[in-house]
Amino acid sequence: MFKSNYLFTFGVIICLFWIIMAIIAPFVAPYDPVVQDLTLRLKAPSAAHIFGTDNFGRDIFSRVIYGGRYSLLAGCLTVVIAGCIGTIYGAIAGYVGGAVDNVMMRLSEMILSFPSLILAMIINAVMGSNLFNTMFALVIVAWPSYARVMRSVVLSVRENEYVTASEALGASRIRILLKEIIPNSITSVLIMATTDIGNQILMFSTLSFLGLGSAPPTPEWGMMVSDGVQYFNKFWVAGFPGLAIFTMAVGANFIGDGLRDLLDPKLRKQF
Q1: Cα–Cα nearest to 208, from 193, 218, 199
Q2: HSE (side-chain half, CA atoms, 13 Å) at 103
Q3: Residue 177 CB: number of other CB atoms within 10 A?
Q4: What is the rounded CA–CA span in Å between residue 227 and residue 222?
Q5: What is the pTM of this model?
Q6: CA 90 to CA 83: how far, in whole Å?
Q7: Residues 66-93: b if buried by 16+ CB within 10 A, e if exposed
Q8: d(Cα 115, Cα 123) in Å, to the nearest integer?
Q9: In the chain, where do the E strands start and end?
Q10: What one-character DSSP code corresponds to residue 59?
Q11: Which of 55, 82, 247, 268 is the most exposed place for a label (fewest CB within 10 A)?
Q12: Running DSSP on this structure, what letter comes out for residue 44?
């Protein structure tokens, strides 16, 4: 697959790069990301500071490397939690059906009826601005989408013969749900989750840009872009963290598209 789908390979390389950089940040970052030196304020990229410095004289390269820890953690953890909640919720609604399905899906549709960013802002503003609350807001906004996808697949899977056979043998609904329904319906959710990592990083960065993310002086990509907006003539202040957000989001989407092509029976023959 790596040889036949170059975009997938490119996406894997990008995402692995940022993940590795976040893990080894203390060893590759040349400066402390929060230490200020006003004598170096807004210095252009140079040999000493390859990404330049911000308005407090902090090294932007070091802050971008460390910032990946917060942005990647928020994006990946949000997707994992929201995906698990949505998968179980949608599987139950689709398999049980009837009035239970109607009530459960109306609840998820109520959340989906609100613009995602506005709802996340409201939740975050009510609970307070910090990393945990921002991630909680993103999970609340994200899980209904997974529930809808999972339910739509389960409605088809539950009609298969192996499910009917399990019911005829007297297997409990919980066993059928865990052993037959979810394992055979999870593919679509996994593809969606991979692609959604980039979206959640963008959403987290947007909330941070609006001042609803991590508290200063935490080096977080969205907050760094927000700090650099007032210095348009100093492109490096917002440009490099913005480039990090862009590349990570694009890489995650390339991986998601590659997995979709691999797992789709109509496209699998290409690999």
Answers
A1: 218
A2: 5
A3: 22
A4: 9
A5: 0.84
A6: 10
A7: bbbbbbbebbbebbebbbebbbbbbbbb
A8: 12
A9: none
A10: B
A11: 268
A12: P
Residue 267: is its pLDDT beyond 60?
no
User: Using CA atoms, how far apart are residues 13 and 33, in angstroms rounded to an integer?
Assistant: 25
215 secondary structure, DSSP code: P
Q: Is the dihedral of CA 212, 218, 219, 225 positive or negative?
A: positive
Say what the alpha-carbon torsion angle 37, 41, 44, 45 is, to the nearest 10 degrees: 20
Q: Phi then psi for 48, rounded to 5 degrees? A: -75, -35
Whole-angstrom distance, CA of residue 145 vs CA of residue 139? 11
Tokens for 14? 């990008």
Kindly tell me the number of DSSP H helices and DSSP E strands found in the chain.
11, 0
H/E run at residue 255: helix 235-263
Q: Which residue is listed with tokens 């997974």? A: 146
CB 149 within 8 A of CB 188: yes
Residue with tokens 């990229």: 45
Count Cβ atoms below 10 Å from residue 210 Cβ, excluding itself: 17
pLDDT tens, position by position, 232-262: 788 899 899 999 989 988 888 888 888 777 7
Question: Encoding tokens for residue 199?
Answer: 């979206």
pLDDT confidence bin for 63, thresholds 50/70/90: very high
Q: Are 207 and 25 in contact (CB under 8 A)?
A: no
